[in-house]
Every structure is written in C-alpha cells, then in structure tokens.
Amino acid sequence: MPSKTSWINKELIMQSLRSVGWLGIVYFMGLLFALPIDILGKLTNPNLTYYNNIYENLFKMQYPIQMGLLFLIPVLLAVFLFRYLHVKHPADFIHSLPIKRNKIFHHALLTGLGILLIPILLNTLFLLGLYWITELNLYIDAADIFAWAGITLLMSFLFFLTGTFIAMVTGLSAVQGALTYIILLLPAGMFLLVTFSLKQILFGYPTEYYYNIQIEEYSPIVKAAMLENKMISGWDALIYAGLTILFYVLALLLYKNRKIETASQPITFKLLQPIFKYSVTFCAMLVGGMYFTEVQGQGYWMWFGYVVGALIGYYVAEMILQKHWRVFHHWKGYVVYLLVIGAASFLFQFDLFQYEKKVPEAGSIKEAYVGYSYYDLFNSDSEIMMSSENGFVPEIKRDPMLKEEDSIKAVRNLHKAIINKGETSTGYDRMPAFFYYKLEDGSTLVRSYEIEQGDLKEYYSALYETREYKEATNDIFHIDEEKIDKLTLHQEYTAGKTVTIVDPEEIKEAIDILKKEIYNESFDDQNRLSTFSVEVLLSNNQRTGISIRNTYDEFEQWLRDKGYLEKIKVTADDIDWIYVIDKKEHTRELMKADYPGDIFPKLKEQGTGLEINEKEKLNEILEKLSYERQQNPYLVGIKYKGQPHVEVMGLTEEDAPSFVKQALE
C-alpha cells in the first residue's frame, strides 16, 4: 500500500527559517523590551506614581520602538523570504524541484506569517501574565491587551502581504522594498498631491480641510503612525483585513503566472510596465508642480513644474525599466501623456463642472457655518475646550452652526459675493474664509477662500450683526451665571494690573452688560483695540475669556461706577511713547521687517513720523486704535512700560485726530 506524502515540506521551511528566522527573534525581543519588561520596570519603580502611558493605550509604551518594528520587520521579512525570485540561480533551482508553485508559495508565506505571529502571541501571553500577577490590572483591562495584539497582528500581516504582492510584480529586491512603502503610502501621498493641485486650479477648494480631517483615512501607514493617540475602528479593521486577503489572492495569482526568467527585471509583467511608467510620471508631475508653486509662490510656475516634473518622472521610469540611461529617444509617450493631461486640465481650469460657482440653494440648506477655519467647527464635536487643572475637558457646548433664515441668507450672500469678486492677488492682507454647509439630503458642501475682508465689508457686516451669529461665536452666551466663581480683569499690555470681582450680584450685572455690548457691536467694532480682558472662572475650576474693546462704553461706565476702571484701564501713565507714521511712506521698511514693530525705534530716531507725549493726546488716540493694520493709512507704534517690544495698531482716516493728519500731511 503506497504511503501518503505530507503536504508540509520541512526542507522548504528550514531553508526559509535559515534566511529569515533572525527577524522573528528581533521582533520578539523588540516587543519584549518595549512592553512586558518596560511595564514591569514601571510597576516596580517606587518613584513612579502615575502610569498614564500604560492605562491610556498600550501603543504609548515605547511607541517609537513599536512603530519601528511594525514598519520594518514585516517588509524586510517579505523581501528576504522571496529573495529567491529575484536572483536567477535560486529561482531556476527552486522551480526545478518536483514541487508545485502553489506549494512553494504557501510554504514561504506561512513561514512569514508564523514568524510574525509567534512574537506577538508570546508577548501577549507575557502581558496577560503581568495582568494577573501584578497591579497592571488596576490600569488596563484584558481587552486592552487583546486590542493591542489584534491590531499589531493585523497591521503586521497587511504590511507583509503588501510586500509579498510587490515581490511578484518586480524582480529586484531593492525595488520591492521601495515599492512596498510607496504602495502603502500611495493613497495618502496621491491625496496630498492631487488636493494641492486642485487648490491651485479650483477657486475655493478646501485643501486644509481635507488635509487635516481625512488624510489618515487613506494610508494604513499613516493610520498606524497615529495608534499612539487613536486606535483603529472596527470598520478600519475590516477594510485592512479585506486588503490583506486581496493582496494574498493577487500575489498567488501573479506567482502562478510569473516567468522565472524575469528575475532581475524591474517590472516582471509587460502589462504593468506602462502602468508603472505613467504612474511615476504622474506623481513626479504633481511633485514638480507643488515644488515650484511653493518656492515661487505664483500659479503659472505650477504649470512649469508640471512639465518639468513629468519629464523627469517619465525618463526616470524609462531608465528603471530599460536598466540604462540611453532612453531619450523614447519621447513620443511623453508627448501623448502631456496631451492627455492637458485635456484633463482644461476641464478643471475652465470649471466645466461649475465647481467654483456652486452655492447651495437656501431651501436645500439645513445649517451653515462660516469662519476663519474648520477648527472651531470640528473641535470635539462642537464642544468648547477650556483649560482646567485636570486637563482639557468639554464644558461649554456652543453650536457653531447657523440655522435661522436670516443667518443662512447672510452666509449665502457673502459666499456669492466672494465668488463674484473672484480670486484676489496674493498679499499679506488676505484673510481666510471657510464655509461649511449641511444640506437637507445629508450631504455637505465645503469651500475655503483667501479674501480681502475690507472689500466685502457690507456682506460681513450683515452676517456679523445677526443675533444668532454672535451667540454661535461667543462663549459668554452659553455660560451658566450661577456657576461663575469670579471674574478677573487682566490688563493686556502691562503686568500687574488686575481686578477681581467675586460678588454674585456684580458678576451677574457684568455678564448681562457684556452680552448687551456684544449684541450691539458692529462689524467694524470687532477690530477696535482691546486693552484688557475678562477671565471667567467657573465653580469647577474651568476658565474662558472675553476681550473688552474700547467701544464697550456701557461696561466701561459700569466699571467706573464700581471704582474698578482706574485700576485696569490703560492710560498715558502706562506708556513710554507713541509714534505715528503714514504707512505709504514706509512701505519698503514694512515689507522687509519680520514684524512692523521692529522698525519703529529706528523711525523714531530718524523723526520721520509723529511722536505723541501729551497725556490728553495719548488718551485720545488710545480710544481710536484698531487691530486692523492692512486697510488703515496710519500705523501707531506703542511702547508700553516694562515691555521690550513695540505694539503696532492701525488708525483709520476717519478716526485719526486732526493733530495727526496735520503733522503727517
């Protein structure tokens, strides 16, 4: 009776272990020192009383070591395990054996998976042992250990299978290693490059929003790099498991159809060679466009960068494929590529899809947001984060979304005005404008612009002066007055000037007056000088602040009546000197300076402006100052006593006292 032949070939396994077994030992020892030994050391150290990096997240333990092992070991394992495919003699030898390709592939693959599995499994058992016999169970749950093990195993398998798939595509080990990381980073990298280019082509494209909100979703390496602060979700785990299986299937299919003689070839399949060539060309084109745009700062340089980047990428890819540098006669493919890209760019450049002109209809908008950026909108699900002794915790819930009809109308009118005005030339006086719409059908529309706010004053005023907008953008309307312990008034520019209000009745009066002042505040008033601020301390030791502008006459009168104003208000006695200049006369100096205040001491010595010393004039000009410097004709340098630097404010033509105009005519 014939004996059965075992499917397991010990010689194949031993051959693989001889070449890659050391990687398993390195992985095991690295994880052992990064987790069990490090945790044991912390638990037995009498000088440590807090173990935040233990109980928050096991990935915080020796995070650089864990990530280094996770990113390096699986890829190296794939490179060394399938090295035989990339060298002619080993490839000929192993495929001449009476063993099916399917069996050879699976022996190498399962050996690699085992080398990854065993170190993770052993360290998981050590962690569970520590959990049961030490105080580790006071800081983490057993579920945290299993979560760490599961995520580490999943990401290791994904990186390994990615490297295995790439091993079938190329015949060079160096190319395999490089392409593995490129493939893992490609979605995020392409997202960054394409998004940057769309920002230059499409007016209003919200590049920063996509960079910061969604970028980690496009690359498993980026996602893994964030494990210290954010664990992957169940949905992410399913996607990565699916990708791991997909790379396994593709690798197996390619292995079965791979020709042995393609060892040492950069790309082993003819069908994939043009894909590789034009992918490299496209990526190099986007990098070139980004580089020249960032360096030169002008849009037309982007197109120059596209042409140069594509040219470099095309010929580098050709050199890799041909394995020599004499490839410059292959120019027709480059010309065809430029024609195709030019036609595609035409669609975006002339906005044939009406992206730039799109503003949602009022009836389709559920709620809208407009501000300088998305940070307030996405700050902990619209919860304002305020400091406390215990860290940062959500206390005041302020919904930044606008829902009322007049507010949405003002947002739409502002948005349409920005579109009608078009893109403004690059300048330091431009301000960001970020729009976010939630529509009735559940979709969103996001736009971001750089605009000159002064040209849109009418539309900003209509929005800013709506009651809902002020309530949505000011914390004071969402504070429970019964929970306020005290108000502390701080001088903005001079140290030591503070006033504390603890009387509940006075606190209530002050808050009521401040609410009224904000309701009555105009858009122009928001740029007025704020010489002191009010810090609100709540009963749970959390704080928020309110800036007090020099237009808050009723609040100032209330402070005067209570005897607080003279203790906090900036007066001529707090100032060394004030110097006023005509901005247009000093354009060159201002452009060269890192900060406008740097030029005032020298201008004061030269006597090219107006120095104000009289107390009455000092107090008069202090009442007129504005934070807006770009749109105002006069700049005012203020040297406060005890301050090493010069504060610079703006002064409008209308607010400038007659003695200033006469002196600077």
Question: How would the blueprint of this fold be written?
Answer:
Layout lengths: L9 H25 L1 H8 L8 H4 L7 H19 L6 H9 L4 H33 L8 H28 L3 H29 L5 H8 L5 H6 L8 H24 L14 H25 L3 H23 L9 H18 L15 E7 L11 E6 L2 E7 L7 H17 L9 E9 L4 E8 L5 H8 L2 H7 L10 E8 L6 E4 L2 H17 L9 E9 L4 E7 L3 H10 L2 H4 L6 E8 L4 H6 L7 H7 L3 E3 L2 H8 L11 E7 L6 E5 L6 H7 L1
Antiparallel strand pairs: 1-4, 2-3, 4-5, 6-7, 6-8, 8-9, 10-11, 10-12, 12-13
Helix pairs in contact: 1-2, 1-4, 1-6, 4-6, 4-7, 4-8, 6-7, 7-8, 7-11, 8-12, 12-13, 15-16, 18-19
Protein name: ABC-2 type transport system permease protein
Keywords: Membrane, Transmembrane, Transmembrane helix
Organism: [Bacillus] enclensis
Structural category is: alpha+beta
Percent of residues in beta strands?
5-15%
Cα gyration radius (Å):
33 Å
Tally of helical segments:
24
Spatially, the strands of the biggest sheet line up as: 7-6-8-9
Report the mean per-residue pLDDT as an integer.
Answer: 84
Q: Tell me about the largest β-sheet.
A: 4 strands, antiparallel
What percent of residues adopt helix (DSSP H or I)? 40-55%
Shape: globular
Question: How many independent structural domains?
Answer: 5
Uncertain regions spanning at least 5 consecutive residues: 380-394
Distance between the termini: 116 Å
Q: How many runs of DSSP E, i.e. beta strands?
A: 13
Characterise this structure.
Helix 1 (10-34) runs parallel beside helix 6 (101-133). The chain is 53% helix and 13% strand. A hairpin with a 4-residue loop joins strand 8 (530-538) and strand 9 (543-549). The protein folds into 5 domains: 10-261, no CATH class; 270-343, no CATH class; 362-473, no CATH class; 481-568, no CATH class; 572-664, no CATH class. The model is unreliable at 380-394 (pLDDT under 50). The protein is of the alpha+beta class and 665 residues long. A 4-stranded antiparallel beta sheet has the order 7-6-8-9. A 4-stranded antiparallel beta sheet has the order 11-10-12-13. Strands 1-4-5 form a 3-stranded antiparallel beta sheet, sandwiched between helices. The chain is globular and about 100 Å long.
